[in-house]
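Q: I'm writing up a methods section and want to include an example of the input and output format. Could you take the sequence below and give the corresponding predicted structure tokens, formatted cleanly so I can copy it straight into the document?
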Amino acid sequence: MADKVTGSTIKAGIIGATGYAGVELFRILLRHPGVEKIFASSVSFEGQRIDGVYQNLLGQLGDKSDGRLLTADEVKEQSDVVFTALPHGIAEQYADYCVKNGKKLIDLSADFRYGMDEATFKEWYKKDWQFPAVHEECVYGSPEMYREDIKKARVIGNPGCYVTSATLALLPALRAGLVDTASPLIVDSKSGVTGAGRNATMTNQFCECGESFSAYKVGNHRHQSEIQRNFALIAGKEPSDISVIFTPQLIPQSRGILSTTYAPLSAKGLELASSAGLGGIRKIYEETYAGEPFVRVLPEGVAATTRTVRGTNYCDMQLYLVNGGRMLEMVSVLDNMVKGAAGQAVQNMNLMYGFDERAGLDFIPAAF
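A: Here is the clean output for your methods example:
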């Protein structure tokens, strides 16, 4: 079966539409000019209406959706592109169906984030691949890294939220050879509670996380391997050649990620910092991201805050020279549910179908 004609309107399906990432996808696709219909499924709420589960959608569905939550099979059969917002290890079967039936799939779990490296996926997620061949179709869904490959892809592995904030923070410096990759690279990240998912746990209960601030899974969070892999790919090295210290922390707000990433400068980086100061490094960042629609290198002296990216697909960043000018410190912020999940997924869809990359994502950040 032939793929949907690039640039035409499409029908989009969301499998797992009542999780936080799933309903963000629904919200964004409702206002997307290239999406004519939305089909959604939910195991927990099958047969109900999505605007009954999320009342913010009342009166917003228009002609794009009748609101019914269908089965996953109904969604995949009626859609041109399928978004899977499911627990890890489930999306493969839907990707296999989509590839065989001229459809495309964008997965928000970790199933397709490791290319053909099944061993690393199994090490961190304790699952075997059930459809190994479909991984040959996959492209890692970071537009800033793989835009041209994404345009031709049939299956996308959407990056993790922590990973996106850290990767974008160091991409220009790693690409320019300014980072000493023989030394550990430190990523210190704070996330809102939506990152823990919608299902109630001891971690995300209000009485456990309200008025509190804690680190978790120190040294063994699954995103560490993905961060390490990205840093290595950008630097032209093997993942085993890069050392990453990643510490995730939970903060008492609903959404947003702030990552502080520390990288010792290489001899080249030290030379540039000595001759041109922070301005020399800033110029590389500004040139790298000059054409990127959703990455903003902030003016000098402006702090990166989660407030100014909330509900948007932007990643904002600020850079500093610290430790006597020997280390680059990057502060990057994004909305973990948008650029860290659903928004980046729609950005990838736009590239795959020839839409304007900003389509459906041109939110103006709220002032407060």
